[in-house]
């Protein structure tokens, strides 16, 4: 080995290379990958609703579909950080991001964005074409949300609704991995969408309160020129009501036993709103909510209960609520090209 490669000079070169690479790794937002847990309910619900059609995928296939979702999400995060740099300078926390300091170059960010998206969509498609289509739509929604002239994140209400669409798309990635020829119930899709909108509106409210300056908030995020605390509170109440309504439709139609989890869901949403109303709220960074240990343990416990209820039959509930016990799990069929190879 030459002195240049093994000595102090080689070490300095390695350090410089790593220092130049690190900002591109940081904009991947690996800590945000926890959001992709929303793929798992798609896997579980598809297997539950049609156990005769397809079994639950193994660990390898599950990890593959989650990895695919993470890659596409990181593609969206990369372009988001680069395009948001002029606005993030005005945020009390985000001004520290690498793109704000000019540590990343547009050409390399563009390449990273395209490579990650191609890898993620291909990986999902190899599992099932339907999952690949949902992964592609997840990437396209990143364009709608971030890239001018569309840039829905600048438009009040559409900013929340267009970002929350990512929730049912994650659900679809999991669902079509198990059931490539069946479309998920519309009640489930809308409930997932509105639940995501509730969380995003709460995050907006927490950000608005954290900035605590209407003019600066509007300069940071143009939608804040229309928003204020009252409007954000009213909107998140609307999203919560819509989510509850369609969750109820899904439960009555597909598995009434899940009605026992409704109080836990309501308490969890109220708790999240309470977190969102706190000073310097953790709701601004949902990926870090695990640090609110009480809330994280509560969510984990509620998820375990829902899982148990999926495999529980309580006939007395049906007679109590006057609901037919077996309404059948009729799902829309998709054409044969949706099937995996």
Query: What is the rounded distance between the termini?
Result: 49 Å
Oligomer: single chain
Specify the CATH architecture. Orthogonal Bundle
Order of helices and strands: HHHHHHHHHHHHHH
Name the CATH class.
Answer: Mainly Alpha
Q: How many domains in all?
A: 1
Low-confidence stretches are 1-6
CATH topology: Farnesyl Diphosphate Synthase
Task: Give the helix level as a range of percent.
Answer: 55-70%
Could you characterize what this model shows?
The chain is mainly α and 341 residues long. The chain has one domain (19-338): Farnesyl Diphosphate Synthase (Orthogonal Bundle), CATH 1.10.600. The chain contains 14 helices and no strands. Residues 1-6 have low confidence and may be disordered.
Keywords, separated by commas or semicolons:
341 residues; mainly alpha; Farnesyl Diphosphate Synthase; globular
Topology (SSEs and partners):
Layout (H helix, E strand, L loop, with lengths): L2 H4 L1 H19 L12 H11 L9 H30 L17 H22 L1 H18 L11 H7 L1 H13 L7 H26 L2 H7 L8 H26 L7 H15 L16 H18 L4 H7 L20
Helix pairs in contact: 3-8, 4-5, 4-6, 4-8, 5-6, 6-8, 7-9, 8-9, 9-11, 9-12, 12-13
Short description:
The chain has 341 residues and is mostly helical. The chain has one domain (19-338): Farnesyl Diphosphate Synthase. The protein is 65% helix and 0% strand.
């Amino acid at each position: 080995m030459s002195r240049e490669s093994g000595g102090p000079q080689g070490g300095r070169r390695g350090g410089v290379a790593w220092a130049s690479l690190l900002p591109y790794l940081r904009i991947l937002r690996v800590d945000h990958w926890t959001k992709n847990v929303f793929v798992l309910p798609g896997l579980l619900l598809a297997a539950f609703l049609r156990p005769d059609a397809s079994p639950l995928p193994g660990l390898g296939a599950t990890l593959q579909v989650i990895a695919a979702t993470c890659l596409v999400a990181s593609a969206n995060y990369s372009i988001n950080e680069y395009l948001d740099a002029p606005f993030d300078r005005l945020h009390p926390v985000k001004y520290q991001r690498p793109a704000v300091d000019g540590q990343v170059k547009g050409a390399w960010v563009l390449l990273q964005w395209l490579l990650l998206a191609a890898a993620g969509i291909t990986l999902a498609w190899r599992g099932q074409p339907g999952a690949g289509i949902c992964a592609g739509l997840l990437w396209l929604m990143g364009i709608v949300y971030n890239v001018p002239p569309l840039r829905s994140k600048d438009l009040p209400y559409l900013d929340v609704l267009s970002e929350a669409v990512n929730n049912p798309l994650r659900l679809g990635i999991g669902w079509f991995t198990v059931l490539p020829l069946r479309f998920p119930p519309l009640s489930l899709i809308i409930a997932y969408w509105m639940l995501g909108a509730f969380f995003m509106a709460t995050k907006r409210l927490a950000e608005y309160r954290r900035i605590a300056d209407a003019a600066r908030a509007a300069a940071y995020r143009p939608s804040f020129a229309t928003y204020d605390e009252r409007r954000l509170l009213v909107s998140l109440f609307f999203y919560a009501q819509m989510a509850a309504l369609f969750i109820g439709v899904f439960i009555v139609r597909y598995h009434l036993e899940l009605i026992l989890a409704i109080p836990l869901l309501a308490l969890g949403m109220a708790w999240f709103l309470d977190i969102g109303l706190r000073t310097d709220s953790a709701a601004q960074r949902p990926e870090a909510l695990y640090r609110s240990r009480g809330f994280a343990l509560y969510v984990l416990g509620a998820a375990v209960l829902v899982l148990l209820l999926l495999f529980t039959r309580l006939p007395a509930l049906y007679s109590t609520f006057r609901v037919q016990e077996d309404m059948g799990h009729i799902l829309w069929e998709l054409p044969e090209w949706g099937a995996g190879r």
